[in-house]
Design brief:
heterodimer; A: mainly beta; 5-stranded mixed β-sheet; 48% strand; globular; B: mainly alpha; 3-stranded antiparallel β-sheet; two-stranded antiparallel sheet; 9 helices; 5 strands; elongated; coiled coil (chain A); mRNA processing (chain A); nucleic acid binding (chain A); mRNA splicing (chain A); Beta-prop_RSE1/DDB1/CPSF1_2nd (chain A)
């Protein structure tokens, strides 16, 4: 079996973010790494939105990112530290919208190794050198410079190794134009390694080491090293030279310290803590990330604690000697992986978990009366400042980027009873977690809905002048009237527009520079800017049935199939062409393209006829109205639309010229099919037709504008948008009710919107999240969701469990206790005041989703069982478990001895301590599901000796994995009754699947075990297992013999029992042989075969066999911790497989991955790649240069269009 | 993965080693010069008095002896003469009929290198290369005949019935009869197959077996066993054939009487019930009473079933 890997949605979590002028313009961009994806985000200061411009999978693990700007340069390069054993310097090419590899220098083995550099990157702030460091021992320094052509050059590496040291962080110290220096947070473990008592290890101290690159000697020296008092986690470089005092800020537990070379004394300031915090007071507080903002006159740092509180750090100096560190509470935002302060005054927060945010810095927090904490304030050792967190004050949320990361679990089902299934995902961590319902489609934001006096037929928008940015009128056509609405502050009806209101309208448009045209059944009305009106009336009894219009041309079809062509002359007069053309059949629809930039007319007219053909008619004066080409259709056409796609927009700020794309003829058929055909720009030939079924109704097409380029809105029973995004075609449905007619809409509030009609309403819609595959509806949850089950009533039962957390009950108790202490501690006379404060404290409600939940300490667990309606988000039932009870597994079971009730079983661990692992026991809670899945009533609780990690219904009873024991339980009256047990699974059962008498168990470390239940003897016997140790996270039973599983390293594997394997124990009726006869190393005697193996690159959290589109085929869908959704698709024909295998092979050599990792080696990270073709690599064919595409397609004996069609076909057959 | 042997059982290793050596030595003896007898002993076919040896070793000692060498010379000479004779006969035949297709007595080449057993393979089911008991293979004369006898005796399915049918219609033909010496023996090549269940080989047969028992004794299977004071052993075979596998569609010309089918239905339920009890942790002791399995848990008021 061969599989094809497709990514449906790329990872959404961000591991690191940097900002700089990557395109060389004045605007700052953000580059983020999403594990294996490098993405460039651009921020539009006008709308405040942040949107991805380029997203590239690098087929390697990005471990570090740094922006790098040469001295005096204006463009930032991107330095990437990855697992490739190479340093890679990338440059963003705005004209081609690609990352280009400028340098790639090999220094070590590939893979994430502790001794091979790649984990840490630091650049010299003046742009002369870059240091790349490993976790242990090795550090290399590269000198970067420019050559005569001003190209970036890279030197050979200079070593700065020191054995027996571990590195925590490296930064480039800003010391102006003296020799580049790097500060490094290290620990020397040599003594600790030698000392078996562990005394030395306990005493070992961190070092702050300076490495200096002597540019004169071309050599790196260890300049200075100093022991640190506190254990630090990262460094912040302080601006130096002319801009600041230089030096570093050391962020350590509870303190932030300023250090510099020379006679600068250390300045130390404690990190403030929240007042009346429920956190464990013994816990230290650390900063987790920081951002620096620097202008010519000032600089400050924003540093975030692990509770999410941001502090603004400023340094007071006295002639370049720092005298004081000042901290000021800024705001509280989600705990982030990286923060970027942009020059335009925005703060980008890449959250560790959940959605990412863009904030505008509205205030700098100066002079607002809030306390400033300073190192100069005397405090006792161990004491710290206190502050009260508050809602946002200095920051304003501007934009939010959805992030599913981490997806804890996912199930695909059609609970909403739509024709396409939805993905129900459990996302997030702690109080910011959510249940998200994902549907394929673009999210539509409804800007306005207004009712109209009747049911309109059509709607258009027109500008008053061609050079205006925004539309002036909305024209709505009814059966017997036309309504004109003017767009301003408000939208209201006008009568002075010149449009004829007493007749229905067929079409209208802006004409020439400043005129308008209205086409109605009896004629054409040309409205000049001075309100003069020219009318053209239809001859005799003929009426206009169809028309096609653009800025300079009007074509109408009269009854009987006669075409009349008008073109605007230089005086602004609309002139009829001398000849008319009689078509062979009735004209059903017509389409004309926009007038290309700098040309007089669009050269092609597309005419759809009743004889199931589309004809291209020339509008060139040389051969006007002569037929050029024809295409036969499977059904009658309904609508036509010629658009130009694939080109790029010219940008004023960067002076990039726009490139022109190709012309495409979109044909909507009456049977609900959309055809997209390439229209040759010169000859008018039609070629390369792509077909897609959109819905049950005839397809109507409308041209709109999306991100500056043209797009087609296709309306059938669902509305679809066909557009190019990041140089790829997308055809995505809108997640919105069905519409009848639409037109583009541009106004100040909504520069790229849609005006549409649906029954008797006029709607103004905006599409903001272009490129997103799924739109999501999110329902908040309390703790980290772990697993869920779907009840037959379509309600979900979710278990949420958090470590290091209090339950609600304990929290109130603790609060009460703290309040009492407050009163008690107060002096006699202050008692009253204290009581007031205590009352205020008790009443204070801090939403945990904003401020985080208090950290209770290790070994404290809180859990909730929740029944939720996934469509309305209503929580129907919530059962709080006791403090320290952690729900681990859940299942809905129908027992044979109680067949009327559905029983919900929840496996709970009691007092679980993770390291070293211990627990006081486990329970299985049984609840009866009542009132159609809305109520749970407690039945009984069974105590077990280990963690019940997996529960599955099995033949009217239930299989429970209790630690390493697999047991069959039956429902008893007082508790669950153990009926059968197998003790042979090695470590811990994470998953159980059953089929017939077969039971498939996944062990946490030892892969799959195939068991057979012998009813006669009431025994579970392992008859086969896997040969590889796999740390299974999730699995899916594909058929009786085949199992798909994913491990925690990111591999997906399919194993299958060979035909020769038998689960029969006939020869041996007692089963003792199979029970006792163990193979090598205590494994089973029979082994499963590996069918295929593939490294995805992210931890996979769920696997499911599902059909994602109606009428599609089944595929294996996986979700990952970083929020990606992908699928493995089986090949149906050998031909496809052969072709794609070749394509993959060529892609590997011709288009090597960006960060220097070998593709094949990457996909074989832990186990050799087997029988899986990487669709993500193959689909990169579309983003390659045309010449390369051509040569590669030639080698494959195809044309580039055929290759991309094949790639599109295989994707659309299974997904979107 | 390594193929390390588990444990330190020297004896087993010795046995295996010895067997392997035998296998290897056995290969050195030409096939037509010695023979493995059905009782596992060996004979030398070169010497005219065909001496019998208990082991391969003694055969090899004999083969290097003076007596054998003398015999071998004669044997070779005889073979050469036989070859010449065949040539002569062929030539004669050619002159008469224009071809050389003469009848030659078949050579017996079915002793596979004097191997006492199939080569060792851990995965395979061990099958015997020879049968110590003399078995008479009954060869029906033609396949069409065999199908007709089935139609004649539809009421008595099963193996015994086949015998009866044969006795009544045809004389017995078996492969030890003299006239079969010159007819080509049906080659039964011993294949080393991976272990495979018997159960699924011929569901038809198992079903018909059980039917026979039912119809013959005309009582429930369990009663019979209890009468004989034998503990009930419902093998997986029978239960599965009764419950899980639907009876295969009978050939159109065989009419299966209704009565046994109803009984199977009862039987099915009964077996299902027994299985359920087994699954619930009930066991039967030596005289058929239900007892609780000490490894399973029960509700405190749960009582023994009365079946």
């Amino acid at each position: 079996m061969f599989l094809y890997n497709l990514t449906l949605q790329r990872a959404t979590g961000i591991t690191s973010a940097i900002h700089g002028n990557f395109s060389g313009s004045k605007h700052q961009e953000i580059v983020v790494s999403r594990g294996k994806i490098l993405e460039l985000l651009r921020h539009d200061p006008n709308t405040g939105k942040i949107y991805p411009v380029l997203s590239v999978e690098v087929f390697g693990i990005i471990r570090a990112l740094m922006p790098f700007k040469l001295t005096g340069g204006s463009k930032d390069y991107i330095v990437v530290g990855s697992d490739s054993g190479r340093i890679v310097i990338l440059e963003y090419m705005p004209s081609k919208n690609i990352f280009e590899k400028v340098h790639q220098e090999t220094f070590g083995k590939s893979g994430c190794r502790r001794i091979v550099p790649g984990q840490f990157l630091a650049v010299d702030p003046k742009g002369r050198a870059v240091m790349i460091g490993a976790v242990e021992k090795q550090k290399l320094v590269y000198i970067l410079n420019r050559d005569a052509q001003a190209r970036l050059t890279i030197s050979s590496p200079l070593e700065a190794h020191k054995s027996n040291t571990l590195v925590y962080n490296i930064v480039g110290v800003d010391i102006g134009f003296e020799n580049p220096t790097f500060a490094c947070l290290e620990i020397d473990y040599e003594d600790a390694d030698q000392d078996p008592t562990g005394e030395a290890a306990a005493k070992s101290q961190q070092l702050l080491t300076y490495y200096e690159l002597d540019l004169g000697l071309n050599h790196v020296v260890r300049k200075y090293s100093e022991q640190l008092e506190e254990h630090a986690n990262f460094l912040i470089s302080v601006p130096g030279g002319n801009e600041g005092p230089s030096g570093v800020l050391i962020c350590s537990e509870n303190y932030i310290t300023y250090k510099n070379l020379g006679d600068q004394p250390d300045i130390r300031c404690p990190i403030p803590r929240r007042r009346y915090d429920l956190d464990d007071p013994e816990r230290g507080m650390i900063f987790v990330c920081s951002a620096t903002h620097k202008t010519k006159s000032m600089f400050f740092f924003l540093a975030q604690t692990e509770q999410g509180d941001i502090f603004k750090i400023t340094l007071e100096t006295d002639e370049d000697i720092v005298t004081e560190i000042r901290l000021k509470y800024f705001d509280t935002v989600p705990v982030s992986a990286s923060m970027c302060v942009l020059k335009s005054g925005f703060l980008f927060v890449a959250s560790e978990f959940g959605n990412h945010y863009l904030y505008q810095i509205a205030h700098l927090g100066d002079d607002d009366g809030e306390p400033t904490f300073s190192s100069a304030m005397p405090l006792e050792e161990g004491d710290t400042f206190l502050f009260s967190p508050r809602p946002l004050k200095n920051l304003v949320v501007v934009d939010e980027m959805d992030s599913l990361s981490p997806i804890m679990s996912c199930q695909i089902a059609d609970l909403a009873n739509e024709d396409t299934p939805q993905l129900y995902t459990l996302c997030g961590r702690g109080p910011r977690s959510s249940l998200r319902v994902l549907r394929h489609g673009l999210e539509v934001s409804e800007m306005a809905v207004s009712e109209l006096p009747g049911n309109p037929n059509a709607v258009w928008t027109v500008k008053r002048r061609i050079d205006e940015d925004y539309d002036a009128y909305i024209i709505v056509s009814f059966v017997n009237a036309t309504l004109v609405l003017s767009i301003g502050e408000t939208v209201e009806e006008v009568t002075d527009s010149g449009f004829l209101g007493t007749t229905p309208t067929i079409s209208c448009s802006q004409l020439g520079d400043d005129a308008l045209v209205q086409i109605y059944p009896e004629g054409i009305r040309h409205i000049r800017s001075d309100k003069r009106v020219n009318e053209w009336k239809t001859p005799g009894k003929k009426a206009i049935v169809k028309c096609a219009v653009n800025q300079r041309q009007v074509v109408i079809a009269l009854t009987g199939g006669e075409l009349v062509y008008f073109e605007m002359d230089p005086t602004g007069q609309l002139n009829e062409y001398t000849e008319r053309k009689e078509m062979s059949a009735d004209v059903v629809c017509m389409g004309i393209g926009r007038v290309p930039q700098g040309e007089q007319r669009s050269r092609f007219l597309a005419v759809g006829l009743a004889d199931n053909t589309v004809r291209i008619v020339s509008l060139d004066p040389n051969d006007c109205l002569s037929p050029l080409s024809m295409q036969a259709l499977p059904a009658q056409p309904e609508s036509l639309c010629i658009i130009e796609m694939g080109g790029t927009e010219a940008k004023e700020d960067t002076n990039e010229p726009g490139t022109s794309g190709g012309l495409y003829l979109n044909i909507g058929l009456q049977n609900g099919v959309l055809l997209r055909t390439v229209l040759d720009m010169v000859t008018g030939d039609l070629s390369d037709t792509r077909t897609r079924y959109l819905g049950s109704r005839p397809v109507k097409l409308f041209r709109i504008s999306m991100q500056g380029s043209e797009a087609v809105l296709a309306m059938s029973s669902r509305t679809w948008l066909s557009y190019t995004y990041q140089s790829r075609f997308h055809l995505t449905p809108l997640s919105y009710e069905s519409l009848e007619y639409a037109s583009g809409f541009a106004s100040e509030q909504c520069p790229e919107g849609i005006v549409a009609i649906s029954t008797n309403t006029l709607r103004i819609l905006a599409l903001e999240k272009l490129g997103a595959v799924f739109n999501q509806v999110s329902w908040p949850l309390q703790y980290t969701p772990r697993k869920f089950v779907i009840h037959e009533s379509n309600n979900l039962f979710i278990i949420e469990t958090d470590h290091n957390t209090y339950t609600e009950e304990t929290k109130t108790q603790r609060k009460q206790q703290m309040a009492e202490e407050m009163i008690e501690a107060a002096q006699e006379e202050e008692q009253e005041l204290a009581a007031e404060m205590a009352a205020a404290f008790l009443n204070e409600e801090r939403p945990e989703s904003v401020f985080g939940s208090p950290k209770a300490g290790m070994g404290l667990w809180a859990s909730v069982i929740r029944a939720i309606n996934p469509l309305t988000g209503e929580t129907l039932e919530k059962i709080n478990l006791e403090q320290n009870e952690a729900a681990h597994s859940i299942a809905l079971v129908k027992f044979a001895n109680r067949s009327d009730d559905t029983i919900l079983l929840v496996g709970v661990a009691r007092d679980l301590v993770l390291s070293p692992r211990s627990l006081s026991g486990g329970y299985i809670y049984a609840y009866i599901v009542k009132e159609n899945g809305t109520k749970l009533s407690f039945l009984h609780k069974t105590s077990v000796d280990e963690v019940p990690g997996a529960i599955t219904a099995f033949q009217g009873r239930v299989l429970i994995g209790v630690g390493k024991y697999l047991r069959i339980y039956d429902l008893g009256k007082k508790k669950m009754l153990r009926k059968c047990e197998n003790k042979s699974v090695p470590n811990f059962i994470v998953n159980i699947h059953t089929m017939g008498n077969r039971v498939l168990v996944s062990d946490i470390q030892e892969s799959f075990h195939f068991l057979r239940y012998k009813r006669q003897e009431n025994q579970l016997i392992i008859f086969a297992d896997d040969t590889n140790p796999r740390w299974i996270t999730c699995s899916c039973l594909l058929d009786y013999n085949t199992m798909a599983g994913a491990d925690k390293f990111g591999n997906v594997t399919l194993v299958r029992l060979p035909i020769s394997v038998s689960d029969d124990v006939d020869e041996d009726p007692t089963g003792n042989k199979a029970l006792w006869d163990r193979g090598v190393l205590n494994g089973a005697t029979q082994k499963a075969d590996i069918v295929s193996s593939f490294y995805v690159g992210e931890v996979i959290t769920s696997l499911q066999k599902a059909t994602l589109i109606p009428g599609g085929s089944e595929s294996l869908v996986y979700t990952t911790l970083s929020g990606a959704i992908g699928m493995l698709v089986p090949f149906t024909s050998h031909e496809d497989h052969d072709f794609l295998q070749h394509l993959e092979m060529y892609m590997r050599t011709e288009h090597p991955p960006l960060c220097g990792r070998d593709h094949l080696a990457y996909r074989s990270y832990h186990y050799p790649l087997k029988s899986v073709i990487d669709g993500d690599l193959c689909e990169m064919f579309n983003s390659m240069e045309t010449s390369k595409q051509k040569s590669m397609a030639e080698e494959l004996d195809r044309t580039p269009a055929e290759v991309s069609k094949k790639l599109e076909d295989i994707r659309t057959r299974y997904a979107f | 993965m390594s193929f390390k042997r588990e444990g330190d059982n020297k004896e087993q290793l010795q046995l295996l080693r010895k067997r392997r050596i035998q296998d290897l030595i056995g290969e050195s003896v030409p096939e037509d010069e010695a023979k493995l007898l059905s009782n596992g002993r060996f004979t030398c076919t070169v010497c005219h008095h065909n001496p019998i040896f208990d082991t391969l070793d003694t055969l090899l000692v004999h083969r290097s002896g003076k007596k054998h060498e003398k015999g071998a010379a004669i044997f070779l000479e005889k073979q050469r003469q036989l070859k010449d004779l065949i040539e002569v006969r062929k030539a004669e035949h050619f002159e008469k009929y224009g071809n050389t297709n003469i009848k030659i007595a078949k050579e017996h080449l079915n002793n596979k290198h004097l191997m006492t057993s199939a080569p060792y393979d851990a995965r395979s089911k061990k099958s015997k290369p020879y049968d110590r008991k003399l078995k008479v293979h009954v060869v029906p004369k033609s396949s069409s005949k065999s199908s007709t006898y089935l139609t004649k005796t539809p009421q008595i399915p099963g193996a015994e019935a086949r015998w009866c049918g044969l006795q009544s219609s045809e004389p017995i033909i078996h492969d030890k009869q003299l006239k079969n010496v010159f007819c080509r023996k049906v080659e039964t090549i011993e294949e080393i197959k991976p272990y495979k269940s018997n159960r699924h080989k011929n569901p038809n047969q198992t079903l018909s077996c059980s039917n026979t028992i039912n119809s013959a004794k005309d009582s429930v299977l369990i009663d019979v066993h209890e009468k004989d004071n034998v503990r009930l052993v419902l093998t997986d075979d029978i239960i599965n054939s009764l419950t899980t596998q639907p009876p295969p569609a009978p050939p159109p010309d065989i009419v299966i009487p209704n009565e046994p089918k109803i009984q199977t239905e009862e039987q099915k339920q009964f077996c299902e019930k027994i299985k359920q009890l087994r699954g619930a942790g009930w066991k039967r002791d030596w005289d058929g009473k239900w007892i609780k399995d000490e490894d399973a848990e029960f509700d405190s008021d749960e009582e023994a079933p009365d079946i």
